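Researcher: Before we compare anything, I want clean individual predictions. No alignment, no superposition, just each chain on its own. First chain goes here; please echo the sequence and then give the structure tokens.
Model: Echoing the first chain and its structure:
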Amino acid sequence: MSKIRLTKEFRFEAAHALLGYDGLCKNIHGHSYILRVTVKGRPLEDDKSPKYGMVMDFSDLKKIVNEQIVNRFDHSIILNKKVPHTSFKNVEDMFERIHLLDYQPTCENMLVDFVERIKQQIPAEIELFSVQLYETATSFAEWFAEDN
């Protein structure tokens, strides 16, 4: 049986700021992120299985990505934990959904984080082929398994 690639697209809204950046992105600003996740595998050949003919059920991929990324990061503020957030009065009290991360929340670093979260959850027989994270309609970062 041939190997097939499946892609599912996800969308979420989030704000971030880049610590120490020398341009406007040092300020908190928002994006309408688009995340495209592509997996690769062979369709199941067991005609007794409800997943017969599928590489992976789209709903299973949706569940993984929603749990690991979309539900966590949608409508949140994403900051490097080195940001002197203590200078804000009770920043954690001001916002329900604030993520203070160990890395600079660039599109590239967020993509690597998301890849690792997804890889830990997909079934062993399925390969994570590629992931794209769009920060704007015209700007995105992409990860390919073959490069890593």
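Researcher: Okay. Second chain, same rules.
Model: Second chain and its structure:
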Amino acid sequence: MRNKILIILLSLVLTGCGKDGDENKNVGPVEYNFILTENTSWLNTGIKLQRGKVVTISTNEERAIGSPVVDPDDPIPFFGHRGLIGKIGEKGLPFIIGMKYTFLTNTLMEGENLFIGWNDKDFEEREEGFPSEISVTVKIEDTDAPPLISPIDGIWVTTATPVFEWEDLDNAVQYVLEVSLFPDFRIIETSVSVTTSYVNLTVPSVQAPTPSPQPQVQLREGTHYWRVRAQVNVGRSLSPILQWTKWSPPYRLGVELGASPSAPTFLSPVTTTGISEGEKVFFEFKTNMDPSYTFWRWRAVTTACGETPQIDPDDPTSGNPTPWMVLQTVLSSNNPTEPPYYYGYFTSPELTRGEWLIRVELKDMNGSTSYSDMNLSIGCAEESQ
């Protein structure tokens, strides 16, 4: 166990944490490197955040996504145990970093220190196989994009008409809000132009700069991404020069209207025929992204040939269920218009002769569940001949 924290600064120019009067100088991107050690609950990076900066936290180590098994007592119960997380200020809400996370600082973050840490409820008891330390880079850049305020990144709401809010920019003529099902905004779900620093989807808004009715928008249940940019007058009032700012880094928003998670769809095996006794079968599945996050696990029950395997709903151990695990988020490479989906996989034990029932179960943060079954008959056809 290492008892001290090694902090390596790759630059002596400290944006946002220099001497008084230096905070607002445009010095270009600045990078810092840190080593987060195994016995550190939260590492105070010493970076004091300033409004209007793009902060990117990243690591090259895949271990940053944590264990596939979730722990409901961890700071972020729907993220992999011992994954890389962060928070803003001593009392800030933890957020997921994983291998990379980018955000734009707003006024509420100003003056607060950036912390990084492990998604671990008891960091002093490190289990075998988890990283003892991890190298993390923090990059800070200037931007002219409007800082987003609410809904905060990663939250899920129970209304189809949330209010979007961002910070007002000096000399802004109009703002454009875009909402998409894709983090890269390849397809725009909703686009609204306004002169205010908010959009209330429950009431008609006004297009800017030419007034015209904007119909009420209702977001469907699911995961959405939203961003904002502004058109700013950089000239004089009598000689306006209009320029667009950059887009703000997007926020993730879940709209949860109470529906259960979509039942998983098996991707493999493609066929259940031809599986031999003693074979281990690789299973893949996918499901729609759930706005309130989703866990998964699988069970397996076997009986003699000719019988019907069943999972006892009154027995929580029936089928030897695995622990609840996190799902991977995937963008389809075959269909660029397919929204992101959740993906999971596992390998069965050696299949003995008999009738098998394989069940994949899903559970969201509301406790709603769904499942899909696959039946396999191993060697039974030979007995009937």
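Researcher: What stands out in the second chain?
Model: The radius of gyration is 25 Å. Additionally, The chain has a mean pLDDT of 87.
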